[in-house]
Design a protein that fits this description.
The complex is a heterodimer of chains A (309) and B (358). Chain A is an all-alpha fold and 309 residues long. Chain A contains eleven helices and two strands, in the order H-H-H-H-E-E-H-H-H-H-H-H-H. Chain B is mainly α. The chains are: A mainly alpha (309), B mainly alpha (358).
C-alpha cells in the first residue's frame, strides 16, 4: 500500500510539471490557434537563461546573496521571454495569419530549431544547475496511518506548491484583469474580439509571454531537480499526450490531463513495465491518449467538435 | 516562344491523359532521366554520392510517401520515421531469417509490413483529424522506437542493438560502390515516383484530394472516408517503408533505432512542406533542399569565419546551423507557403508566355 501510494505521489509530482508545460501549449493554442511545438525549446531557453544569469550576476556585480541572484536572474529570464514573445509576433505570426494549421506548426518547429541553437550559442551546452534553495531531504508522512509511512521528496512538494501558485496567479489574471478578459475574448472568437477593439497582435504578444513565464517556471523546477540540459526539450513531447487527453482548448483539461498522465505513466512503468521489458513510459502516455481519442475525439474537457458544411 | 502547347493536337483520349501533356516537358523529363542514369554516375567522386545523392534520393522517396498522406489526403502525420523504421527492420528480418531471400523482395516485404503498421495507426484518423491526429501519430513513433530497441527479436538478438546488412546483390549484380548504390536508389525513386504520380491522378487520388479539401462534402458525394483515408495510410506507409529499408540497407549499412527517431519524422514533414504539399515534384525539390542546406552551412560558416579572421568551433557551427536552419524554415514558410513546387509552376507559367508579358 505504501509503495503504491508513493508511486502515485511520484506520478502526481511529475504530472504537475507536465501540466505546466501543457498549460503553455493550451494558452497559445486558444489565443492564436497555433500548435506551439516550441514550448519545449522555450522551457530549455528560459531555464538556461535563469541558470546562467544566477551564476553570472554575482560574478559581475560582486554580491553574495543567492536569493538576490535568483530573483534577478528570474527577472532577466522573464524579460528575455517577453522579448522572445514580441519577436515571434513581429517576425513570424504576423506574417502567417490565416495560414493552415500545419504551416503554423512547421513554423513553430523552425522556431524550436532557432531557439535551441540560440540558447546553446549564448549560454553554452553543458549541464547547469539551478539552485533555488529547495530542500532535498525526503521526509516521511502518515507514519501513524499505516506501517512504514510514505517517503516523499520535499523538493516535489515545493515544486507542486510553486506550480499551484502559478496556476492560481494565472486564474486571477484571466478572471480579474482587463488583459485577462481580453485574452479570454480572443480565445472565444477572434473576429468578435477584434470588432470590439481588442488588438489581436497585442494579445498574441501577451499570451506568448504568459506561455514563456509558465515555461520559465517549469524549466526552473525541472532544472533544479535534474539540472538544465538539452534533454529538457523532451519534456514538450511528454506534454503532448497531456493536451490531447485533456483537450486542446481546455485549461483545466491541461492540469487534470497532466496529473492523469503523470500517475498513469509511473503506475504503468512499475506494474506493467516488467511484462514488456521496461521503458514503456515513453509510449504508454501516448497510447493512453490515443484510446481516449477513440472514445472522445475532443479529449476529456475539450469543446465538442462540430462539423459545419 | 519555344515552350508552349500550340500546334500539339490531341487526337485521342490517350493523348489527353498523358502525365506531361506538353511535348517539351516530356523531352525534358526524358533528358533528365538519361542524364541521371548515364551521365551523373561518371561526374563526381564517392563523397558526393554518399553524402548528397543517395540521401537525397532516399529522402525524396520517403517524402513522396509522406506527401501522399499529408499533401494529397490531408492527414498530418508525425510518425513517418516510425514507418521507415518498420520498413528497415522488417526488411532486415526477412533478409536475414530466410535463406536466399532476394534483396528487392526483402525491401518490398519491409514496405508491406510498414503498410500493416500504417493501417493500424491510421485507424484513429477515422475519428480525429487535424492536429489531434498529428499527435496521435506520434504514438506510432514512440511505440516503434521502443519496440525496436527493447524487443530483441527485431534485431535478430544482436547484443549491441544495432543491425548490419552484409552483401547487397540483385540477380548477380553486386551493389558495392557508391555509384552502384546511387543507381539502385535512383531506379527505385523513378519507379515509385511514376507509380505515385499515376495513383494521385487516378480515381483513388481524386478521392484522397476530395477528403483533404472537405471530408464531409466528400462523404456526401459518395466517397467512403474509411476506405480513402486508410488506403492513403497504406500506400503512404508502403512507400515510406521501402524508403526506410533503402535508408538502412543502402545508405547506412548498419543502423540502430536512433536513425529513425522523431527528428526523421520532422525532417520528412519539412521536406514535404518546403517542397510543396500535394506535389510529387515538390518532394524531390524539398529533399534536395533539406539534404544540401546543412552540408552547405557546414562548409560555408567556417569559410565565413575565416573571412573575418575568426575560427569557429565545431560546437558553435552546429548551433549556428540549427539557428540558420530554423530561421530559414520560418522565412520560407512566410515567403512561399506553397513550397518550391509553386515556384516551379510559376516559372513554367512565365516560360510559356516568354518573351511576351501577357
Amino acid at each position: 500500500m505504501g509503495f503504491f501510494l508513493e508511486t502515485v505521489f511520484g506520478g502526481l509530482m511529475a504530472g504537475v510539471l507536465y501540466s505546466l508545460v501543457a498549460l503553455g501549449f493550451v494558452l497559445i493554442f486558444k489565443a492564436s490557434g497555433v500548435f506551439n511545438f516550441a514550448q519545449g525549446a522555450m522551457v530549455l531557453f528560459a531555464a538556461l537563461a535563469m541558470a546562467r544569469f544566477s551564476q553570472w550576476l554575482p560574478m559581475w556585480l560582486g554580491f553574495e546573496s543567492k536569493w538576490l541572484a535568483n530573483i534577478l536572474a528570474f527577472a532577466i529570464a522573464a524579460a528575455l521571454m517577453f522579448a522572445f514573445a514580441w519577436l515571434v509576433e513581429r517576425l513570424v505570426l504576423r506574417h502567417l495569419v490565416n495560414q493552415e494549421g500545419v504551416t503554423l506548426l512547421m513554423a513553430t518547429l523552425g522556431i524550436t530549431y532557432f531557439l535551441d541553437g540560440l540558447g546553446q550559442t549564448i549560454f553554452g551546452s553543458a549541464v547547469y544547475k539551478i539552485d533555488i534553495g529547495m530542500p532535498k531531504q525526503p521526509i516521511f508522512v502518515f507514519d501513524s496511518v499505516f506501517q512504514g509511512g510514505l517517503l516523499i521528496n520535499q523538493e516535489d512538494l515545493y515544486a507542486a506548491l510553486i506550480a499551484a501558485a502559478l496556476v492560481a496567479a494565472l486564474t486571477i489574471f484571466f478572471q480579474k484583469t482587463t488583459t485577462g478578459r481580453a485574452l479570454r475574448a480572443v480565445a472565444d472568437d477572434h473576429q468578435a474580439a477584434q470588432s470590439i477593439g481588442i488588438s489581436l497582435q497585442r494579445m498574441w504578444v501577451v499570451v506568448w509571454f504568459v506561455a514563456g513565464i509558465t515555461a520559465l517556471v517549469a524549466g526552473m523546477i525541472w532544472g533544479s531537480k535534474i539540472g538544465v540540459q538539452f534533454s529538457l526539450t523532451t519534456v514538450a513531447l511528454k506534454a503532448l499526450p497531456v493536451i490531447i487527453l485533456g483537450g486542446l482548448t481546455s485549461v483545466p483539461g491541461a492540469i487534470v490531463g497532466g496529473l492523469i498522465i503523470g500517475v498513469g505513466e509511473k503506475l504503468s512503468e512499475v506494474y506493467l513495465g516488467p511484462f514488456f521489458g521496461g521503458g514503456i513510459e515513453i509510449w504508454f502516455s501516448y497510447v493512453l491518449a490515443l484510446i481516449v481519442l477513440l472514445v472522445r475525439p475532443q479529449g476529456l474537457f475539450g469543446e465538442k467538435i462540430i462539423d459545419r458544411v | 516562344m519555344i515552350y508552349r502547347e500550340n500546334g500539339q493536337f490531341k487526337v485521342a483520349y490517350r493523348d489527353d491523359q498523358q502525365i506531361f501533356p506538353i511535348a517539351q516537358d516530356r523531352w525534358f523529363v526524358l533528358a533528365l532521366l538519361a542524364f541521371a542514369f548515364l551521365v551523373v554516375p561518371f561526374l563526381f567522386d564517392d563523397y558526393v554520392y554518399k553524402a548528397i545523392l543517395i540521401p537525397f534520393l532516399v529522402l525524396a522517396l520517403a517524402a513522396i510517401g509522406v506527401n501522399i498522406l499529408v499533401g494529397y489526403c490531408g492527414q498530418i502525420s508525425l510518425g513517418s520515421g516510425a514507418f521507415m523504421a518498420v520498413g528497415a527492420y522488417m526488411a532486415y528480418n526477412m533478409f536475414v531469417r530466410f535463406d536466399g531471400m532476394p534483396l528487392i523482395a526483402a525491401l518490398l516485404l519491409g514496405g508491406g509490413f510498414a503498410t500493416l503498421v500504417g493501417i493500424v495507426f491510421g485507424i484513429p484518423s477515422l475519428r480525429v483529424k487535424g492536429l489531434y491526429l498529428a499527435v496521435a501519430t506520434l504514438a506510432a513513433q514512440f511505440f516503434c522506437d521502443w519496440a525496436f530497441s527493447r524487443i530483441p527479436w527485431f534485431t535478430n538478438n544482436s547484443s549491441s542493438g544495432s543491425v548490419a546488412v552484409g552483401r547487397l546483390e540483385v540477380m548477380g549484380w553486386h551493389i558495392n560502390t557508391p555509384v552502384e548504390k546511387y543507381l539502385f536508389c535512383l531506379s527505385f525513386v523513378v519507379v515509385f515516383a511514376l507509380l505515385a504520380k499515376n495513383l494521385v491522378r487516378g480515381a483513388i487520388g481524386r478521392q484522397w484530394m476530395a477528403i483533404r479539401d472537405m471530408d464531409v462534402a466528400a462523404a456526401v458525394i459518395g466517397i467512403r472516408p474509411t476506405y480513402a483515408k486508410l488506403s492513403a495510410f497504406a500506400v503512404s506507409s508502403f512507400i515510406v517503408g521501402v524508403a526506410g529499408a533503402l535508408w538502412g540497407f543502402v545508405h547506412l549499412g548498419s543502423w540502430e533505432p536512433l536513425a529513425f527517431s522523431i527528428d526523421r519524422s520532422f525532417q520528412l514533414l519539412f521536406i514535404v512542406i518546403i517542397g510543396g504539399l500535394g506535389s510529387i515534384m515538390g518532394s524531390l525539390f524539398g529533399a534536395a533542399f533539406i539534404v544540401i542546406l546543412p552540408i552547405f552551412l557546414n562548409q560555408f560558416l567556417p569559410f565565413l569565419g575565416s573571412l573575418f579572421g575568426v575560427t569557429i568551433s565545431t560546437a558553435l557551427i552546429s548551433h549556428t546551423e540549427y539557428m540558420i536552419f530554423g530561421a530559414l524554415i520560418v522565412w520560407f514558410l512566410i515567403a512561399e507557403p506553397h513550397g518550391l513546387a509553386r515556384l516551379w509552376s510559376i516559372g513554367k507559367q512565365k516560360l510559356r508566355l516568354w518573351p511576351f508579358p501577357h
